C-alpha cells in the first residue's frame, strides 16, 4: 500500500466556462455536460461535441461540492466541476474512483465558503489517498463492478484496502444488507398502499357520505358533542426531571405522538389530545395512560352522541380547519372557544360503529406493518454497525 497526495497521481483539470445554459441550448447533442449537479451523474445538459472520452468528475460548487461521479461515455465539464486526469501508471482510474467515492463525505467536509460551498484545487490536491498494488486494484474493481449500485448505496461500509476485505464486506452487503433493504422497501410499498386505502375510506365516510346520504347525518358544532379539558401547568420540564417515570406527558410537540417527557403518575387512561400552543392543532390518540401540560388540551366525547375513536378520526379530518382558528402572530395559540364553533356532520352511533368496523382494521394493519418494518430496520442497523466497526478497526 502506497500513500500519495491526490495531486501526485492525478492532474485536477478545471471545467470550461463557455458551457452555459445558453451554449447548451444552441449546441444540443448526445454528449453530456457535467456540472455541480448531484443527481443524474452530474449531467447538466447534452451538446454535440465532447472533451473527454471517460473519467472521474467532481462537483466543485454548491451544497454538495465534492460529489464524485464516473463518466462511462464521452463528456465535457463546466466551470463548476473538475476532471481527474491520471498521471501515475500505477493507479487504475476505476480504483481511484471507488476510493474517492468511498471517501466522499470526507472530501465534502473540506469544502468551504460563506454563502456557497466550494472545493479548491489546492485542498483537493492535498487529499491523501492509499493505493495498493495494480493486481489488488484490479481484483477490487472486479469485485465491486458487478454490484456497483449496492456499493454506492453503502460505500461507507466497504473497505477497499485489500481484496480480502472488499470481498468480505461486499459479501455481507449481498447476503444480508441487500435482502433486508428489499424487505424494508417492500414494507414501505405495502404501508403506502394501505394508507392510501385508509385515506380513501376516511375521505368517503367523513367528508362525502353526508352529501350522498344526508338522512343519516345531523349537523353539530364541536361544542355540542365534545368536552374540552385544559392541561395542567405544573407539568414543566423541571417537574418532569424530578418525577421521571413511564407515563407520557403530552405537550405541543408535533411528533412522537405529542410526547414531551415521562413521569411516574398519570391523569387519564386514554384519549384524544390536541396541541394548543406553538405548533397548534396537532391531533393524537393516546392509547395508554398519560397526562397533558398547559400547551395541550384533552377532547372528550359527549356520551351517547359520538364514539371516542370516531371523534378522533373526525377531528383528524378537520385538522386543517382547526389549525386555521389560531390566535397570535409570534406564538400561535388555539383556544377552546374557537374549536367549539367548528361545524361537523355526525351520523348515528350505529353508523359510526359500522364505519369504525371498516377503518379500524385497516389502521391496525398499518400499525402492524410498521412494527414489522421497525424490526427489520433494527436488524439492518445492527449489521451496518458491525461493518462500520470492522472498518474503524482497520483504520
Automatic annotation (TrEMBL):
GO molecular function terms listed in the Swiss-Prot or TrEMBL record: DNA binding
Protein name listed in UniProt: RESTRICTION MODIFICATION ENZYME SUBUNIT S2A
Highest taxon listed in the record's lineage: Bacteria
SUPFAM superfamilies on file: DNA methylase specificity domain
Pfam families, sorted: Methylase_S
Natural source organism: Mycoplasmopsis pulmonis (strain UAB CTIP)
Family to which the UniProt record says this protein belongs: Belongs to the type-I restriction system S methylase family.
Keyword field: DNA-binding, Restriction system
InterPro entries: Restrct_endonuc_typeI_TRD (IPR000055), Restrct_endonuc_typeI_TRD_sf (IPR044946), Type-I_RS_S_subunit (IPR052021)
Amino acid at each position: 500500500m502506497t500513500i500519495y497526495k491526490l495531486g501526485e497521481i492525478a492532474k485536477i483539470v478545471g471545467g470550461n466556462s463557455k458551457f452555459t445554459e445558453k451554449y447548451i441550448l444552441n449546441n444540443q447533442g448526445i454528449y453530456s455536460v457535467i456540472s455541480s449537479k448531484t443527481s443524474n451523474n452530474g449531467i447538466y445538459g447534452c451538446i454535440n461535441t465532447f472533451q473527454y472520452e471517460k473519467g472521474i468528475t467532481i462537483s466543485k460548487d454548491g451544497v454538495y461540492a465534492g460529489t464524485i461521479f464516473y463518466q462511462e461515455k464521452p463528456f465535457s465539464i463546466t466551470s463548476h466541476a473538475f476532471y481527474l486526469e491520471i498521471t501515475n501508471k500505477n493507479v487504475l482510474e476505476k480504483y481511484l474512483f471507488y476510493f474517492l467515492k468511498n471517501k466522499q463525505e470526507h472530501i465534502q467536509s473540506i469544502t468551504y465558503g460563506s454563502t456557497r460551498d466550494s472545493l479548491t484545487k489546492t485542498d483537493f490536491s492535498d487529499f491523501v489517498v492509499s493505493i495498493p498494488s495494480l493486481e489488488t486494484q484490479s481484483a477490487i474493481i472486479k469485485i465491486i463492478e458487478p454490484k456497483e449500485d449496492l456499493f454506492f448505496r453503502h460505500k461507507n461500509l466497504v473497505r477497499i484496502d485489500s481484496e480480502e476485505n472488499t470481498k468480505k464486506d461486499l459479501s455481507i452487503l449481498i447476503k444480508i444488507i441487500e435482502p433486508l433493504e428489499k424487505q424494508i422497501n417492500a414494507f414501505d410499498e405495502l404501508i403506502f398502499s394501505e394508507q392510501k386505502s385508509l385515506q380513501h375510506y376516511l375521505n368517503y365516510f367523513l367528508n362525502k357520505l353526508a352529501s350522498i346520504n344526508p338522512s343519516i347525518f345531523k349537523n353539530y358544532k364541536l361544542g355540542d358533542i365534545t368536552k374540552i379539558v385544559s392541561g395542567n401547568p405544573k407539568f414543566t420540564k423541571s417537574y418532569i426531571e424530578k418525577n421521571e417515570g413511564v407515563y407520557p406527558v403530552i405537550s405541543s410537540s408535533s411528533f412522537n405522538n405529542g410526547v414531551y417527557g415521562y413521569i411516574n403518575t398519570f391523569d387519564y387512561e386514554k384519549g384524544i389530545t390536541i396541541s394548543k400552543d406553538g405548533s397548534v392543532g396537532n391531533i393524537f390518540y393516546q392509547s395508554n395512560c398519560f397526562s397533558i401540560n398547559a400547551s395541550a388540551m384533552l377532547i372528550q366525547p359527549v356520551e351517547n352522541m359520538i364514539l371516542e375513536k370516531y371523534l378522533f378520526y373526525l377531528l383528524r379530518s378537520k385538522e386543517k380547519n382547526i389549525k386555521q382558528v389560531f390566535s397570535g402572530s409570534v406564538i400561535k395559540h388555539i383556544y377552546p372557544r374557537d374549536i367549539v364553533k367548528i361545524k361537523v356532520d355526525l351520523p348515528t352511533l350505529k353508523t359510526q360503529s359500522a364505519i369504525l368496523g371498516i377503518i379500524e382494521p385497516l389502521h391496525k394493519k398499518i400499525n402492524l406493518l410498521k412494527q414489522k418494518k421497525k424490526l427489520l430496520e433494527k436488524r439492518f442497523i445492527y449489521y451496518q454497525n458491525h461493518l462500520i466497526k470492522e472498518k474503524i478497526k482497520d483504520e
